[in-house]
Amino acid sequence: MSAPQSTPWESDKPAEAWAAAAADPAIAADLEAVYAYIAAAVETRGPACWASGRCCHFEKAGHRLYVTGLEAAYTLQRAGVPLTRERIDRARADGGCPFQEQNRCGVHPARPLGCRVYFCDRTAQTWQQDLSERALSMIREIHNRRGVPYQYAEWRALLEMLTA
Fold first, then answer.
1. What is the structure's pLDDT at 136?
2. Distance, CA of 101 to chain centre
3. Within 13 Å, how many C-alpha atoms sit on residue 91's CB side?
4. With helix as H, strand as E and coil as C, how does the chain read?
5. pLDDT over 80 at 10, yes or no
6. Which of 47, 71, 90, 128 has the highest CB neighbour number within 10 Å of its CB?
7. CA-based diameter of the chain, in Å?
């Protein structure tokens, strides 16, 4: 593995570094390649998705969404939906995602890895975990190779850091 490149976004403020890195076309392309890999892998499995939005109600669904700082910044930059601390606080209080709109994903094309591999379909649980781990290691490699600070944390907490 090669040493991380020196980057203009190296900073003692990781949220600023993630935002700058997510705006870099080459890094965005790296992340999009991982997302394309996930899409192809999911397509071969054909899991059921009822588009009910239940998976976005984290507490009710019994799970949490964890992402990397780079993914959170990428999603936030491409969301097309203004995100405020109040909206994040409301989502946290409701136990859900701040981008959910009428039980639909308001940022579907830019959603993070965890959203791309999670399906309520019980037959998907084993392979989706394996796919998630493989793809997460690919994203970690982007962070390492591009010199982007790495943090893996709860979705709303990272969005909060990025909107501070």
1. 94
2. 17
3. 25
4. CCCCCCCCCCCCCHHHHHHHHHHCHHHHHHHHHHHHHHHHHHHHHCCCCCCCCHHHCHHHHCCCCEEEHHHHHHHHHHCCCCCCHHHHHHHHHHCCCCCEECCEECCHHHCCHHHHHCCCCHHHHHHHHHHHHHHHHHHHHHHHHHCCCCCEEEHHHHHHHHHC
5. no
6. 71
7. 45
List all residues 6 or more positions away from 24 whose beta carbon is below 8 Å from its beta carbon.
Answer: 9, 146
**Contact present, 140 and 151 (Cβ < 8 Å):** no
pLDDT of residue 79: 87
Tens digit of pLDDT for each residue in 75-113? Answer: 999 988 788 999 899 888 888 888 888 777 788 789 898
User: Does 142 have pLDDT greater than 80?
Assistant: yes
Say if residue 3's pLDDT is above 50: no
Give residue for tokens 């040493």. Answer: 3
Angle between helices 14-23 and 25-45 (to 10 degrees): 80
